[in-house]
Amino acid sequence: MANLDVVVVGAGFAGIYAVHALRSSGLTVRAFEAGGGIGGTWFWNSYPGARCDVESKDNAIVFATGFDAISGALRQIDVRGASGVALADRWATGPRAYLGIATPGFPNMFIVTGPGSPSVLSNMALSIEQHVEWIRDCIGYLSAHGYATVEALPDAEDAWMAHVTEVAYSTLFPKADSWYIGANIPGKPRVFTTYVGGVGPYGSKCDEVAAAGYPGFALGAA
To answer: How far apart, in Å, do the first and last CA atoms of the chain sit?
Structure first.
């Protein structure tokens, strides 16, 4: 395989936009998709409001009791960190990530709309764009300053997820047995990990971290 700057896993809306944005910034990028084509969940399920170059279809209500939200797709991939620990094992008590973007022990791995971000409680297309562009700018910062690695710090992740939990429990969201907390998946820890503080405040926090040189992340030299 040719040398790549970035590997994108999944060719859903987030993956497609990531390839476009990162290639446009001059990076060598390749996406890998296990499905039979591109587009991901939104394409195959004709998600309402998703603008695709496909024929429109009628939508029906489906009781998707097996929908493993937030962490399901990532847990199905045998992603292992620098010490060999599997992401699924690290998330055994519930998914978590600093700013919903990165998790300790997994350097140079970014997550789009992950646990700790507005994710499914936002306009997903908007949040995908915000995350991908933040990741693109972070990679550009690393390159411009001679860094080769970036990794979320445990204390930063702990503090952020504590904030996510505090905001969540000021609402009724965590009190319902819903897929938001994994109640529909037997054995899944019941943890509310979506940031409900709003897309605006969340985006401002991400911008603040970037402007300050990425506090909460360990940056490693080449």
So the answer is: 22
User: What is the DSSP secondary-structure string of 166-196?
Assistant: HHHTTSSGGGS-SGGGTTTSTT------S--
Contact by Cβ (8 Å): 9, 16: no
d(CA 158, CA 181): 18
Give the residue ranges of DSSP H helices in 6-147: 13-24, 40-44, 72-75, 87-90, 124-144
Please write the tens of the pLDDT for every residue from 37-46: 776 665 555 5
Spatial distance between the Cα atoms of 207 and 209, rounded to a whole number of angstroms: 5
DSSP 127: H
Residue pair 48/59 in contact (Cβ under 8 Å)? The answer is: yes
- pTM for this model (two decimals): 0.86
pLDDT in tens, 1-52: 568 999 999 888 889 899 999 999 999 999 988 877 776 665 555 555 555 5
Distance of CA 37 to the CA centre of its chain: 21
Count CB atoms within 10 A of the CB of residue 159.
Answer: 13
List of domains in the chain: 63-210 (3.50.50.60)
